[in-house]
Specification:
The radius of gyration is 22 Å and the shape is globular. By secondary structure, the chain is an all-alpha fold. Helix 7 packs across helix 13.
């Protein structure tokens, strides 16, 4: 009688980091998770911080809006700067200044001295930091892994970002209740300090160094590169409108419909949790799938973002809406990972940050407008028509993008530069 051999026990020594996970990639993923946890908590605390100092809902909107506005104003300059100097230095400096602004914001709230203009300034400084950080970060992560393994690497990175959102929102909500919103903002500042410390260890050789060209010249080069690629500006314009619609539904229409016909905030909380679960599922799905037609796959996934609006329009079941949100989360990550793969394949390294800045500005510029018009539109014609228009618009935009040959025919190459 043969004796079965015992299975080896799982130990830390048995764990292996994938070969494609370079030092730069691992540092960036760790830092992104750290700062992402703090940011997600700060989003939860921001509105409560304004209200805790005696401000109104409109004041909270002004504070949040100042961050978005200044981020949009400075993001093109951020992209040009990131392509012209060491990207790790740009990220470390942006994180450091953001830590100071959030720490100041939190201290003002804790000690009860915060005035509206001070909160607007702190939030606006955070927006400027974001404008410099985002192009540098995306430009660097795209170049930190071997081309052949980029799909898996980007899928894992997106899963890390989504996990940070879930963890940060939970921590932020608990801290607001237990200690107050000011301490959540201080926690965000500490996370930025930790992220800056991690990014200080990024290999300097990954950074792009350029010289001789003026800032205006660099911006012009970025714009020329952006508009010369039809697939790029078609998708960016489409997502500018889609993001505005989705944000209006998720932040305004959805919660109101939930309150009126689905049982209240708990039902909408379930829907948002399902969306978060969907983003994690989609990222894991893309870890094992390498589609040939990346933009066809991505825009097909993006079409699933129409499902929550359709579900809210035609059903009052929280389960149905949650399932639609789950599918939308999966679709969003299918698009996001494929978009990162396309950018990695098609955009020259020395112009990546500037292209990213145009992409980011175009994709998110209509988000504030979507939030502003969602409420009045719903009160004017009712939630049903607004939600039907939202679902139809998202579907049509994705279809129109796929009708463009440059979008439909762009394919994955087996080797970089082929």
């Amino acid at each position: 009688m043969t004796q079965s051999r015992p299975k080896p026990r799982a130990t830390l020594q048995n764990l292996r980091v994938p070969a494609w996970a370079t030092r730069s990639y691992c540092v960036q993923a760790s830092a992104a998770f750290t700062s992402g946890v703090g940011n997600a908590g700060a989003v939860v605390a921001g509105t409560f911080a304004v209200l805790a100092t005696g401000g109104s809902g409109s004041d909270a909107g002004v504070v949040a809006g100042s961050r978005v506005l200044l981020a949009m104003i400075f993001v093109l300059y951020g992209g040009a700067i990131a392509d012209g100097m060491s990207r790790p230095k740009v990220m470390v400096r942006a994180n450091t200044v953001n830590a100071l602004s959030q720490g100041t914001f939190g201290a003002l709230v804790i000690f009860g001295e915060a005035q509206l203009w001070q909160m607007v300034v702190c939030s606006g400084v955070g927006g400027i930091c974001q404008a410099f950080y985002v192009p540098a970060s995306e430009g660097m992560i795209l170049g930190s892994v071997p081309y052949a393994d980029s799909g898996r690497a980007f899928a894992v990175f997106r899963a890390v970002l989504n996990s940070a959102q879930v963890v940060g929102a939970a921590i932020g909500g608990l801290l607001v209740v237990a200690a107050g919103p000011g301490w959540v903002l201080v926690f965000d500042a500490v996370c930025f300090v930790a992220a800056a410390a991690l990014r200080a260890f990024l290999p300097p050789e990954v950074a792009v160094r350029r010289g001789g060209a003026t800032l205006a010249r660099q911006l012009q080069e970025g714009w020329t590169e952006f508009r010369s690629r039809r697939w790029l500006w078609v998708v960016v314009i489409s997502f500018g409108v889609i993001n505005g619609i989705v944000n209006g539904v998720q932040t305004v229409v959805g919660p109101i419909v939930s309150e009126r016909s689905m049982g209240g905030p708990g039902a909408w909380g379930l829907a948002l949790a399902a969306f978060g679960a969907g983003t994690l599922t989609g990222a894991l799905f893309m870890y094992v799938w390498r589609p040939r037609r990346m933009l066809v796959t991505g825009m097909s996934g993006a079409a699933l973002l129409a499902l929550p609006s359709a579900a809210l329009a035609f059903s009052s079941s929280s389960s149905v809406v949650a399932c639609a949100m789950l599918a939308a989360g999966i679709g969003l990550e299918v698009f996001s990972v494929n978009w990162m793969m396309v950018m990695n394949q098609e955009i020259p390294r020395d112009r990546m940050a500037r292209i990213t800045s145009y992409d980011w500005m175009g994709s998110y510029s209509l988000v504030p407008l979507g939030t502003v018009i969602a409420g009045p539109a719903m009160e004017s014609v009712g939630p049903g028509p607004v939600l039907c228009i939202a679902a139809g618009s998202i579907s049509i935009l994705c279809l129109l993008a796929l009708l463009v040959p440059d979008v439909r025919n762009l394919s994955r190459r087996d080797h970089e530069g082929q």
